[in-house]
Amino acid sequence: MAPSSNYTLIALLVAFAVVAPSLQHQSAAARDGGVAKLVTAPAPSANGEVVVLHPTASYEIPDLPLPRIIPCPPLFPKIPFIPCYNVAPPPPPPPPRPKECWTTLVKSLVPPCSGFLTNNGGACESEAPSRKCCDGVKLFLSGDRSVYDPLCLCHVMNGDVSQLLPAAVNHTCALALVQACLDGVNPQPFSDLCNNDQSIKDEMPPMDLPEPPPPATGNTA
Length: 221
Known about the structure:
Layout: H1 3-40, E1 43-44, E2 50-51, H2 102-117, H3 123-126, H4 131-142, H5 154-157, H6 171-181, H7 187-196, H8 198-203
Antiparallel strand pairs: 1-2
Helix pairs in contact: 2-4, 4-6
């Protein structure tokens, strides 16, 4: 190639490098202006009325056709083009269970249900338990799980609660109490689980916390 041709090619390249950014800027401005006009400019309708297009229209960038194998960042905006899957937060830990049943039985069940459970005067044979008694029983299923444990009712089924009553629990009355107060709970299978299922016995909180061992006494000379 002749020297003059080389000079001409170099001059064209330099001119293009100088002019290209301004052309790109003008093109972007024209494009943005055109988009703005398309978005904000009123469009005439068929009956001559002016229809204003929504200027706040938004568009989502589609993801690449890839499998969702990475979790979406929980605290940051989603990465464009990269498919991801939402990660559900872990469930909260269950509340701590009560360590004994004495407190809740004395507070909620014994005072209003004592006469019914011991069949005092034929109470459980002639009438239903009082509303206050049933409300106390229901707390063991619907109350705060850190305070009320459903398995504390097993101490009613197995007779342990007798130590809190003026007389021994009448087992027939205990079954009648569950049937009257707890909808959907079959009293006899519930009693069988409390009395015969070892796994239930292992999970059942005790009536009262065991007494701490006596302090060790040192040898005296």
